[in-house]
Amino acid sequence: MRLEFAHLSDDQLREVAMRADDLLRFTAAAAVAASRVLGQEMYDVQLRGALALARGSIAEMQTGEGKTLAAVPTVAWLAKERRGVHVMTVNDYLACRDARWMGDIYRLLGLSVGY
């Protein structure tokens, strides 16, 4: 699905994400948004982690595997579904850094970010 969405404009991608009624379609749109904003593709381990989290499981990821990015599709999916989301981290520095770092992805998906 990522290839299907890669050619869409930002507005079209946002529309696809906001209208997505299944987790896989939304996650693919979120992965494309992340690629555009960060200039890097999400790794399979990040996508698997995102899907596990969205399905209510705990996902253990090693240092350097991209936990911050793996959380983005799940956080965005839950927010889109109006389930309420708070992302917590261990200190104010990381909260600020991650909100700034991932914020443009959330905004591309039609969501807002605060910290």
Structure summarized in a few sentences:
The chain has 115 residues and is mostly helical. It is built from 6 helices and no strands.
Could you explain how this protein is built, in words?
The chain is an all-alpha fold and 115 residues long. Helix content is 63%, strand content 0%. It has helices at 2-6, 10-19, 23-38, 44-54, 67-80, 92-108. The longest helix is centred in the C-terminal third of the chain and has 17 residues, at 92-108. It is globular, with a radius of gyration of 13 Å.
How are the SSEs placed, and which strands pair?
Layout: H1 2-6, H2 10-19, H3 23-38, H4 44-54, H5 67-80, H6 92-108
Helix pairs in contact: 2-3, 3-4, 3-5, 3-6, 4-5, 5-6
Short key terms for the protein model shown above:
115 residues; mainly alpha; Rossmann fold
Question: What is the gyration radius calculated from CA atoms?
Answer: 13 Å
> How many distinct folded domains?
1
Question: Per CATH, what is the topology?
Answer: Rossmann fold
**SS-based class:** mainly alpha
The CATH class designation is Alpha Beta
Q: How much of the residues is beta strand, in percent? A: under 5%
Helix content: 55-70%
